[in-house]
Design a protein that fits this description.
alpha+beta; about 10% strand; 2 helices; globular; two-stranded antiparallel sheet; single chain; 2 strands
């Protein structure tokens, strides 16, 4: 069997690991070099109604499943150790809505 090459004759396609990651924030900003999880990030929060809906402040807040975020997703390069206050989360979301595009994150 012949080895597959890319259009430049290279033997492997070396795409960065974050291109296939299910976390849309990782696809945009890259993978956290320390291998942490979103649940440990200061930008991660939840909205509680009948159940908890987990969110990332970098994705905004749509009041729907489009901005739901998984706890155990790999964290992105924007990882923060310090938890945000409620007011800080609201400010980030407000800025996100002002500068939003058709892109989800």
């Amino acid at each position: 069997m012949q080895e597959q090459t890319d259009m430049f004759g290279e033997s492997e396609l070396n795409f960065p690991e974050h291109h296939s990651n299910p976390n849309p924030i990782v696809r945009k900003h890259g993978l956290d070099p320390e291998g942490r999880k979103c649940k440990d990030c200061g930008l991660f929060f939840y909205h509680e109604r009948a159940r908890k809906y987990y969110k990332c402040a970098l994705r905004g807040y749509s009041h729907g499943p489009g901005t739901d975020h998984r706890c155990n997703w790999d964290a992105c390069r924007k990882f923060r150790k310090e938890k945000l206050t409620v007011d800080e989360v609201k400010e980030i979301i407000k800025l996100k809505k002002i500068s939003s595009t058709k892109e989800c994150c």
